[in-house]
Write the structure tokens for this entry.
Amino acid sequence: MKQQDGLLLSAAARSAALGRSTQGQERAVLVALEFTAQRRKLTAAARLARDAASIEVGEHSSEIAAESLSQTSSDLDFESSLAEFEELARSAGAQIAATLVQRRARPDAATLVGQGKLDEIVGVVASTHANVVLFDHDLTPSQLRNLEAKLPCRVIDRTQLILDIFARHARSREGQLQVELAQLEYQLPRLSGRGIAMSQLGGGIGTRGPGETQLETDRRKINLRIDHVKEQLESVRRIRSQQRRRREDVPVPVVALVGYTNAGKSTLFNALTEAGVLESSKMFATLDPKLRQLQLPSRRKILLSDTVGFIRNLPHTLVTSFRATLEEVERAEVLLHVRDASSVMCAEQKLQVEKVLGELEVKGKPVIEVLNKIDRLTQHDRTHLMTRRVSGGKQGTSLMVAVSGLKKTGLSDLLAAIDEALVVDPLVDICLRVPQSEGAALAALEAGAIVSKKIFDGNLVVMKVRGPASLLQRYRRYQVRD
């Protein structure tokens, strides 16, 4: 296959190429970096702990405690980020041959890492027989070219790694198109050529000039492919829009699960709906959105949506390309922010999710914080969590519910919280007098509303019911007037 044709491989083909090796897995050397001049601010949890330390100890001691806490928080954040990067590599099908860490004040403009660390990477690649080096950082086009020139194997940065995982998990046509679009837009500025040496026409006697270079040819073909993929995506979105309009003819509110990747959204989705969608500890196991109908304790029906997970430093191209997939989040009446209560970086992950929600402009929606995986906590931690839950409720920040999607505990509290948060199709109380001959109406009321009182009066059934306004409006003709 010619080089220019290879640039137009489908997303699935490129994913397969990345994951190919003699044993089905590639040996990867991971390179993680921390730039000390750009240390992250304290997480919300660390700031609370620092404030608590200030109260419990004297002023001089509190300054020392705060400084120590800041260092501990930074180290903890880096260790968590490193563990997350290793999990990303495994989710992409890589076998980790070695993990290298460098701490430096600022990134090197030419190669990101210093010359000494680059020499070390070369040695480790040779000794471990690795065939790919993964950087937990985005590389500029020039950095990528410089590293590939010095390393005897392929170089992949964080964005390209996440794109590969997305390509592995995309099942629907729309998902595959969105992945391909993001990959092409990532690849376009990273094309490199050799100028006149790559010309289609020579510069010798009998020619009019160098003609179009191979680089220009590749760029033109990628731009054409991008335009074609966008047209196909627009066609898919029109079909989705038509399906949504038909669905909105019978108004059923949408409740969307959002959260950090691997927070347990799919497990919770299955526990609530028995949908049987894929549950996996691998990151981004859910890429294509899933919708299932669910009945609440009030007998109201909702559509529960399972969406792709977020991650820190989520590439902006992915947020843009997957905007169609995230339309269910934008249109949802209530968001269930699923958090891994057992994670040491639970507060940091919350901030990252809220950042992406801000980019989607959906931060004004009602949010229920679902603290998942409480089965992994000790009894002491559970008690502390419930204390925080009550405190948070008093402050009115948002509803908070502790659950375990795996053990199916706390689900009734979650359903009740959804009922409370829904403002569309409100619950109303009404007294009806329905003829016994109206069997269809009686069955619909029994199935879709809560009947608190029922009395038979001759051939009539007198009922006190509480249910969604959309349902009870159909039977207003039977309403008992005061």
